[in-house]
Design goal:
Chain lengths: 109, 117
């Protein structure tokens, strides 16, 4: 499984944008970049995914570097409810999700 | 909308006992995954099923077994329980189709917390 590298933790203030980075220098051409998050005492939940182009949905935006060796999850206005562990995962084809060590996001009021 | 349902939510067992966890996927989802998350750890993949057949296997102990039934629900059976089996067990589903396709979103249940004393 291709590896991703994320900071262990990040802090943000409420209503400010948050940029969560992920490095994946060994990404292959068929790997999709998936982001999931896990709120305290809950199961992981899907956030967003992309292949080459930047993506937007109601939860977040995903900015993918041109060489695809890194990506950034963008939360446009952090809320207290966004405090969670965010996982950047590479997934090829029909493979299972392999969770690495994600980024713990702390949001202060 | 219907979500992934796991039961029981909490389970307490003694060492060497057996436990069975159940997972009911979202309707029309035919792929089910099981993950184990120990205290302070990240979710670890155990096993997955597609159309009632095992589709992938991770670091699942030989003491554990699982299956998917004709109604697509899945059960994880754990025998000879050890203290180290204490964890949150998550089930996830996706579909229709294997893994929900190359970009399939996995939907996770709220987990079953197993405590082994």
């Amino acid at each position: 499984d291709a590896k991703t590298t994320q900071p262990n933790s990040m802090e943000s203030n409420e209503e400010e944008p948050v940029h969560l980075p992920c490095n994946h220098s060994t990404i292959s051409g068929t790997d999709y970049i998936h982001w999931y998050r896990q709120l305290p005492s809950q199961g992981p939940e899907y956030v967003i995914h992309g292949l080459t182009s930047n993506v937007n949905n109601r939860m977040a935006s995903l900015a993918i570097a041109e060489d695809r060796k890194s990506s950034t999850l963008i939360l446009h206005r952090a809320t207290l409810r966004d405090a969670a562990v965010y996982y950047c995962i590479l997934r090829a084809g029909f493979q299972k999700l392999v969770f690495g060590t994600g980024t713990r996001l702390l949001v202060s009021p | 909308a219907a979500g992934v349902i796991q039961s029981p939510r909490h389970l307490i067992k003694e060492k060497r006992e057996t436990a069975t966890l159940k997972c009911y996927p979202i309707p029309r989802h035919d792929t089910v995954y099981w993950y184990q998350q120990g205290p302070g750890q990240d979710p670890q993949f155990l096993i997955s099923f597609y159309e009632k057949m095992q589709s992938d296997k991770g670091s699942i102990p030989d003491r554990f077994s699982a299956q998917q039934f004709s109604d697509y629900h899945s059960e994880l059976n754990m025998s000879s329980l050890e203290l180290g089996d204490s964890a949150l067990y998550f089930c996830a589903s996706t579909g229709p189709g294997l893994a929900g396709g190359p970009t399939g979103e996995l939907f996770f249940g709220e987990g079953s917390r197993l405590t082994v004393l």
